[in-house]
Design brief:
- With about 400 residues, the protein is α/β, with parallel strands linked by helices.
- Helices cover about 30% and strands about 25% of the residues.
- It has 13 helices and 16 strands.
- A hairpin with a 7-residue loop joins strand 1 and strand 2.
């Protein structure tokens, strides 16, 4: 496939006002100005897309959601987001519950969203393992880019509300932190023992912690309130672990502390209702303020809390609230890829990366913009028949 006459936004160092992009074997083969386009590309058997000056950019990335785990229109039968009988469940794997038949996947494709970080919810102190997947397919195993990709932990209201009524811990923020520390301490001991005895029989409960302890994947911390954010930072520092700060609703109140801590933030869902005390200071301005402070940031819908297809609009509302436009696009492309640890494959248009490409008739951060074509790994997975861009 070759895309010609595109206004190519690479999210790398250079863009192309009138450019071409070629795709081979699911990867980006070449990219450049139309004047540099090899004639052979247009004379062979390649599928040609004439972008007609429209915006060509990397596929959009959702850095935190529950698509396919909390399915739309299916009620309890389609809700596999939280195992609410045990507050510590690190061994749960998102890939065992993600249903690619969920209607949200099709909505994502029509919005130009080509990949997403999906995992358990926040009812448990430790919820389980996230997976980073492409948004097109029927078999989740073939859609996976990275699994496990993160370990979910949660602070604040959600674990408290879920377990305080059951007459068991945690019912306070102190208990949440203590239970997480206890679990991490046991995991560290298990890891040390396994280093000393590599042939020991694996313990299913603690094997899942090894990628976290080795720094291969981060903790994914559900945090809204400033004090919960700082507790998460405190524990991650104690155990010397990587971490992402998900939601980070009051992050703008402690920006200097977060800059010093050095953890990235995935901010949102700011389009949702302030239906809990801990989100009373939630605002679209937060992500822009954190970005200006030098913190690596991404925007999230937290689908289904707000709909997956509104992700680029959420980035646009963040821009309206003060975030620079370029940073708005980065928050749903290359920044999201870096935070999720998959930027070697997705998040920007560069030779050798996955050919996840979207063509829009305007900025995706504007409500009236249409998605003309969504391409994942070199295959057209959504196409607007009225666009007339297929040659």
């Amino acid at each position: 496939m070759v895309i010609i006459h595109g206004n190519i936004k690479t999210m790398e160092e250079r863009d192309y006002r009138d450019g071409f992009l070629s795709i081979a074997d699911g990867k980006i083969g070449a990219i450049g100005d139309m004047g540099e386009c090899p004639g052979g590309l247009l004379e062979g058997d390649e599928e040609v897309i004439d972008a007609k000056g429209h915006l060509v950019m990397p596929g959009i990335i959702e850095a935190h959601c529950h698509m396919g785990i909390t399915e739309e229109k299916k009620g309890m039968e389609g809700d596999d987001c939280n195992e609410t009988v045990d507050p510590i469940t690190p061994y749960l794997r998102a890939i065992d519950a993600i249903n690619p038949m969920d209607a949200a996947f099709n909505d994502a494709l029509q919005a130009g969203i080509t990949s997403a970080m999906i995992g358990p919810g926040s009812s448990n102190v430790v919820g389980g393992q996230f997976a980073f997947v492409k948004t097109h397919g029927r078999c989740i195993d073939r859609m996976v880019v990275k699994a496990p990709a993160a370990m979910k932990i949660a602070f604040g209201e959600n674990p408290k509300v879920n377990y305080s009524g059951q007459g068991t811990s945690p019912s306070t923020r102190m208990a949440i932190a203590a239970m997480l520390r206890e679990e991490l301490t046991k995991a560290v001991s298990y890891g040390k023992k396994k280093e000393q005895e590599p042939d020991m029989e694996p313990d299913f409960r603690y094997e899942c912690w090894l990628p976290v302890l080795r720094g291969e994947i981060p903790l994914k911390a559900h945090v809204h309130r400033a004090d919960d954010i700082l507790t998460a930072v405190r524990i991650a520092k104690e155990f010397r672990l990587r971490m992402t700060l998900d939601h980070c609703s009051e992050g703008h109140l402690i920006m200097e502390e977060l800059q010093e801590a050095g953890f990235p933030a995935i901010v949102g869902p700011d389009m949702a209702s302030r239906n809990k005390i801990e989100v009373q200071n939630m605002a679209f301005k937060t992500v822009g303020l954190l970005a200006k402070q030098g913190i690596l940031t991404a925007v999230t819908t937290d689908h289904p809390v707000s709909k997956i297809q509104f992700l680029p609009i959420c980035a646009g509302l963040a821009v309206k609230a003060g975030m620079p436009q370029e940073e708005g696009l980065r928050s749903i492309t290359i920044n999201a890829a870096r935070i999720c640890g998959v930027d070697e494959r997705v998040g920007s248009l560069a030779v050798g990366k996955d050919a996840d490409v979207v063509i829009f008739d305007g900025s995706p951060m504007e409500v009236i913009t249409r998605t003309l074509c969504t391409i994942i790994e070199g295959k057209i997975v959504y196409y607007d028949e009225e666009s007339g861009i297929l040659c």
